[in-house]
């Protein structure tokens, strides 16, 4: 297993390389000038040119790219043009916020998605099944920013139960964290809960039809054990793949949610960086995010091997 | 001593074309230690009968319309789910046709045997393990103790069927239902598995129902035979009588289909036509549209299962005249 993980880690280097190339090309293709943004509205052309030279932005693109890779190999992701802070520390400051929010949303997704999917499968074609699937469809259909806005209007503006935005770290005040994170987490989780519920339902229905489920019943096992052990252990194999995708979607979905709820996470950081053409921040931030997603994928593969004895790498 | 008595059992399935009966008026008894074969084509209702006895028919779409199943004096159709669960394993156990898919792929075979014991007995982990190993040895898995941690995909089809037998027999059932236990296996393995079932029958003193479409399997194993066609019993007899003197044309047809070495023709014999779909069964005798002896009277009404003595019954109105 350790060898596999090592091989997968080495194999992820080309992925990171390609992603960084694409990021570099795209951020430089869109119009805009970070030097002008930093210099401000009243700056003269000469001032802007000076800033550009200081930042090395006047050099050919390939040279800039080469510099970036050279620095990267020494573990230096550069400094954010906008924040004046090293990219790595800026990212690492925001990452826990995004991870905490995604983790919260993931717990909600797993709890409600798996549960409603399993119950719907066991009560196939009853009103419980239909109600669960209508909710799942609603979750999939309603855009998460729209749901976020509706929740802000209802729970923050009208009822005043929760703040409209902002963020309190869990370590500072767990209750405050819950208050600031619950609406963002729900708006992140809703679509994915619907997705997971539907997939769990169809996977469970498929598994419950298998011969080994009949064998489990023929052995005289209680129905609860048949479902929760024999069926679920098999259904979790395909569901794990989906959970891997869900985690990726949670992290990418945080861009919109963090902006909407003014949460200082990596999504908000990168949005700001793109809007201000903060080249190093975009490059470095995206590289770290990509690395994170690659790690999640490796973790999913490891789970796969743990769940399914037939899988051998 | 009667162990199992099935009387007038009728079940139906809900389909897109309305409710159709899968088996109708099935009746038979089984003594302790007896081996009964149920033979018939696919779709004749053999497996439905077995699953009904096990209480494993998926309801819905299945429904039991009438009849009774008495096992050791208890009417199984009136038992609660819990009571039925307790019976599966120590009372009635079942082995299925597909050894490749009948074991759970994500648990070790040891796990799956031990789980069966622990579902029915208060027993320590260590004793359950020892019992499981012992059972694996009994069904002929070599170096059983080390195979306990194997997963099903690490075993061959024949070995998996042996494990299925170990699971079925580990609680010493009084009745074993084997639904096409050898159909998916190589011919050489088939004989081994059948011999094993008979040996274990002798050792445990259990009754066995073997469901098959293979007359050879019946000849090798059964004491008594039930022939089913389109959901009904068409003939019932001790095995020797059935092979020597079949009374129903369908049984004769099945026997004629068995190729023999002395046979000189090039082509294998087959009964012409197909088993009618449940919704399109002919009126009267259901075999009438495939029967070379059918006369107009055959289509008038369902033929009764007449008694011809010595435990031989057949549902054919021309049985006596055809016998001559």
Keywords:
heterodimer; A: 313 residues; mainly alpha; MetI-like fold; 2 domains; 0% strand; B: 324 residues; alpha/beta; Rossmann fold; four-stranded antiparallel beta sheet; 33% helix; 24% strand
The CATH architecture of the largest domain in chain A can be named as Orthogonal Bundle
Which CATH class of chain B applies here?
Alpha Beta
SSE arrangement of chain B, N to C = EEEHEEHEHHHHHEHEHEEHHEEH
Our measurement of the CA-to-CA distance between the termini of chain B, rounded to an integer number of angstroms, reads: 35 Å
CATH superfamily of the largest domain in chain A: MetI-like
Oligomeric organization of the protein chains:
heterodimer
Task: Return the CATH architecture of chain B.
Answer: 3-Layer(aba) Sandwich
Give an overview in words.
The complex is a heterodimer of chains A (313) and B (324). Chain A is mainly α and 313 residues long. Chain A has helices at 2-29, 34-39, 45-55, 61-73, 87-122, 127-141, 144-158, 174-208, 211-218, 223-260, 266-275, 279-307. Chain A is globular. In chain A, 35% of the residues are buried. Chain B is α/β, with parallel strands linked by helices and 324 residues long. Chain B has one domain: P-loop containing nucleotide triphosphate hydrolases (Rossmann fold, 3-Layer(aba) Sandwich), CATH 3.40.50. Chain B contains 12 helices and 12 strands. In chain B, 44% of the residues are buried. Classes of the chains: A mainly alpha (313), B alpha/beta (324). Chain A binds chain B through residues 210-212, 214-223, 225, 230, 233-234, 237, 307-310, and chain B through 54, 56, 81, 85-90, 93-94, 96, 98, 101-108, 115-116, 119-120, 151, 153, 164, 167-168, 171.
């Amino acid at each position: 297993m350790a060898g596999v993980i090592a091989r997968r880690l080495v194999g992820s280097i080309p992925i990171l390389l390609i992603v960084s190339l694409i990021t570099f090309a795209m951020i430089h293709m869109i119009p805009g000038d970070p030097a002008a943004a930093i210099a401000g509205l009243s700056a003269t052309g000469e001032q802007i040119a000076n800033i550009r030279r200081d930042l090395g932005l006047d050099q050919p693109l390939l040279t800039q790219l080469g510099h970036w890779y050279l620095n990267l190999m020494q573990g230096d992701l550069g400094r954010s043009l906008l924040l004046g802070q090293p990219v790595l520390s800026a990212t690492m400051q925001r990452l826990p916020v995004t991870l905490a929010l995604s983790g919260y949303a993931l717990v909600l997704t797993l709890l409600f998605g798996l549960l409603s999917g399993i119950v719907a499968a066991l009560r196939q074609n009853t009103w419980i099944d239909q109600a669960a699937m209508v909710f799942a469809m609603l979750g999939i259909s309603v855009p998460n920013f729209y749901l976020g806005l509706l929740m802000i209007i209802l729970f923050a503006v009208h009822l005043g139960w929760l703040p409209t935005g902002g963020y309190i770290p869990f370590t500072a005040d767990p209750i405050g964290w819950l208050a600031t994170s619950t609406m963002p987490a729900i708006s992140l989780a809703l679509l994915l809960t619907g997705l997971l519920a539907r997939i769990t339902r169809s996977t469970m229905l498929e598994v419950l039809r298998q011969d080994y489920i009949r064998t489990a019943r023929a052995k005289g096992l209680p129905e609860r054990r048949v479902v929760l052990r024999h069926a679920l252990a098999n259904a979790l194999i395909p569901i794990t793949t989906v959970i891997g995708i869900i985690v990726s979607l949670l992290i990418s979905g945080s861009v919109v949610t963090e902006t909407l709820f003014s949460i200082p996470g990596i999504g908000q950081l990168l949005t700001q960086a793109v809007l201000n053409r903060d080249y190093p921040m975009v490059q470095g931030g995206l590289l770290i995010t990509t690395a994170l997603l690659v790690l999640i994928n490796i973790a999913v593969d490891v789970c796969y091997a743990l769940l399914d004895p037939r899988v051998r790498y | 001593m009667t162990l199992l008595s099935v009387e007038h059992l009728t079940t139906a399935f809900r389909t897109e074309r309305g409710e159709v009966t899968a088996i109708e008026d099935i009746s038979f008894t089984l003594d302790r230690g007896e081996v009964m074969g149920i033979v018939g084509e696919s779709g004749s209702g053999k497996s439905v009968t077995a699953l009904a006895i096990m209480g494993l028919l998926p309801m819905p779409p299945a429904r039991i319309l009438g009849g009774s199943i008495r096992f050791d004096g208890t009417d199984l159709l009136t038992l609660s789910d819990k009571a039925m669960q307790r019976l599966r394993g120590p009372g009635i156990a079942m082995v299925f046709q597909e050894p490749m898919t009948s074991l759970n792929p994500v648990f070790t075979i040891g796990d799956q045997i031990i789980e069966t014991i622990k579902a029915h007995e208060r027993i320590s982990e260590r004793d359950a393990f020892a019992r499981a190993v012992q059972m694996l040895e009994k069904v002929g898995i070599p170096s059983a103790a080390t195979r306990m941690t194997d997963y099903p995909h690490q075993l061959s089809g024949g070995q998996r069927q042996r494990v299925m037998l170990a699971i079925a027999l580990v609680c010493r059932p009084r009745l074993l239902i084997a639904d096409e236990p050898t159909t998916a296996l190589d011919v050489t393995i088939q004989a081994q598995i059948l011999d094993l079932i008979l040996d274990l029958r002798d050792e445990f003193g259990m009754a066995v129902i073997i469901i098959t479409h293979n007359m050879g399997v019946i000849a090798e194993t059964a004491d008594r035979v039930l022939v089913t066609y389109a959901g009904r019993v068409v003939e019932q007899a001790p095995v020797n009588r059935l092979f020597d003197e079949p009374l129903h044309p369908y049984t004769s047809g099945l026997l004629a289909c068995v190729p023999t070495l002395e046979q000189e023709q090039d082509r294998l014999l087959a009964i012409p036509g197909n088993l009618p779909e449940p919704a399109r069964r002919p009126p009267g005798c259901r075999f009438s549209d495939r029967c070379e002896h059918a006369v107009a009277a055959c289509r008038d009404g369902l033929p009764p299962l007449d008694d011809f003595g010595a435990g031989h019954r057949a549902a054919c109105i021309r049985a006596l005249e055809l016998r001559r």
